[in-house]
Write a structure and sequence with these properties.
The protein is of the alpha/beta class. The chain is built from six helices and three strands. The protein is 48% helix and 14% strand.
Length: 133
């Protein structure tokens, strides 16, 4: 309610774009829609299903309100996920632009790459920059 009041509206409609050729995405999108509409009175969620190829184009071209994008890490290290949020990342569909995040992430990859504790602190600082940004 506070968010709607801040926007000066009584209701809001958002569209989630997801992959039509993935049954798991359909079920997950249905769940998100139900959860958001139940817990956020005044919100209506519309679902838009497109092929995986089309969703890739849509996210790349910023043609979405909310996009259901999944990512699986290919190795057990923070950069497999944090790299998505670098200002110049091709996968930064939300267009996050945080010099603080970029600096902490870059430090984890370079200066502190061989120091596990220092690298973990850098990733924590990067995460904090995302949270505060």
């Amino acid at each position: 309610k506070e968010g709607l009041a801040e926007l000066g509206v009584d209701s809001l409609t958002l569209t989630i774009t997801a992959d039509s050729d993935n049954p798991i995405k359909k079920a997950a999108t249905d769940y998100i829609k139900e959860l958001w509409e139940t817990t956020l009175p005044g919100l209506t969620v519309e679902e838009k299903f497109v092929t995986f190829k089309q969703r890739l184009e849509d996210t790349k071209n910023q043609n979405f309100e909310v996009a259901f994008v999944s990512w699986g890490g290919d190795y057990p290290e923070g950069s497999t996920f944090y790299g998505l949020f670098q200002s110049d990342s091709a996968y930064n569909y939300g267009k996050v632009n945080s010099p603080e995040f970029d600096a902490a992430y870059e430090k984890a990859l370079t200066t502190d790459a061989l120091d596990k504790d220092a690298g973990a602190a850098d990733y924590k600082a990067a995460e904090q920059a995302l949270y505060e940004g």
